[in-house]
Amino acid sequence: MFTLATEIWHPKNSETRNESSKIKIECRIAWVVDKTRSYFHDKLEMSRQGLSKLRLLDVGSCYNPFKNHQDGDIFEVVALDLCPASGFEDEIYRCDFLDLKVSSESAQNEASLSQVLQHSSVNPVYGCKEIESLPGSSFDVVVFSFFLEYLPDPKQRMKSCEKAWQLLKPGGLLFILRPDSNRVTPWGNIVYIKKLTLGLNLLGFRRKFYEKLTHLWCIGCVKMTEEETLQYKSSPKFMKDSSKVDYDEAFELFRISQDVKTELRNLNSKDLQQATPLSAIPELFEQLPCNEDEN
To answer: 70, 149, 181, 250: which has the fewest Cβ within 10 Å?
Structure first.
C-alpha cells in the first residue's frame, strides 16, 4: 500500500492546476488541509496564539501523510492502521477500527486521549504501539482516505461512520475520500455518492464539502448534535431527498460499486436475463436526491 500510495497515486495527484485563473487542488491531502483551514479559520487563528492544534484522526493511515505534509503543522495527528507501513511503526498506532471501543463522552476527553496514547503498549510482532479504545468527542477531524473501500460489507462501512461520529467533537469534520469507479458499473459513481450522503445524514452528519478531483471523490461532513440531527431529518430537503431513494435498511445506503460488481459476478444466466436492462438505467436517476452541493 505504501508503494501504491507514494509511487503511483501521489505523483498523479499531487500537482495544482491553473484553470481559468483559479488554482485547483488535486492532492487529496492538500484538499483536506485546505477545507479544514477554511472551516476552522477562527480556531486556527487562536492556535497561532499558543493554543492547541486541531486533533486529526487518520484511519487507515498507512504512512501518516498528514504529519509529513508541508501544511500539516495545523494538526496533532493520531494515525491508525491495521498494518502500518514498514519504517513508520513509530508514527502509527496499530488498530482494528471496527473493533475499536469508544468510551463515553466526558469533560476530560482531552486529558483522556493523552493518557490513552501515553499508556499504549507495543505489539512485539508488529513493533508498533496498539490502541484498543479512544475517548468519544475528542477529535476535530476524522479522515477516511480510501478506507471504506477495503471493508467488504456495507454494515461495516456504516459502523465505521457511526464510530467517527462518536469520536468527533460537535461541529467536527469527517472527510471521506473515495476512488472514482465509473468503469465498474454503467451508471458510474454518482449514485453511490448520493446514497452515501443520505446515509451520513441519518447518522448525524451534514455535508459541507463535495468536490471531484482527478480519479477520486472528496466529501466533507459536519457532525451535528442529536438535536440538530432531529431537526435536519424533519427539514423539507431531507424529506425530499429520502423519498427519492429506495432502501429497506440504512446500511444499504453504504453500498459501493464493488458490491455491485461482486453481485453481478454471482448472478447466473437466468438472473442476468431478469436484471435491469441498460435502457432502464436513466429512470433510476429519477429516484435520486437532487445533485446540489450543500454549503
So the answer is: 70
pTM (2 d.p.): 0.81
- CA distances 65 to 36, 61, 184, Å, are 15, 7, 28
Greater pLDDT, 112 or 6: 112
Instruction: Spell out the domains of the chain, with CATH numbers in brackets.
Output: 2-287 (3.40.50.150)
List the end-to-end C-alpha distance of the chain, in Å, as a whole number: 34
CA pair distance 165, 177, nearest whole angstrom: 16
All cell numbers assigned to 108: 476530560
Are 112 and 135 in contact by the 8 Å Cβ rule? The answer is yes
Residue 129 makes CB contacts below 8 A (sequence gap 6+) with 93, 94, 120, 121, 122, 123
Per-position DSSP letters for 213-262, written without gaps between them: ETTEEEEEEEEPPHHHHHHHHTSHHHHHHHHTS--SSGGGGG--HHHHHH
Dist CA 283 CA 294 (whole Å): 24
DSSP assignment, residue 107? T
Q: What is the pLDDT of residues 99-115, one digit of tens each?
A: 999 987 554 566 688 88
- The one-letter amino acid code at 94 reads R
Inter-residue contact 109 to 134 (CB < 8 Å): no
Residues making up the chain, counted from first to last: 295
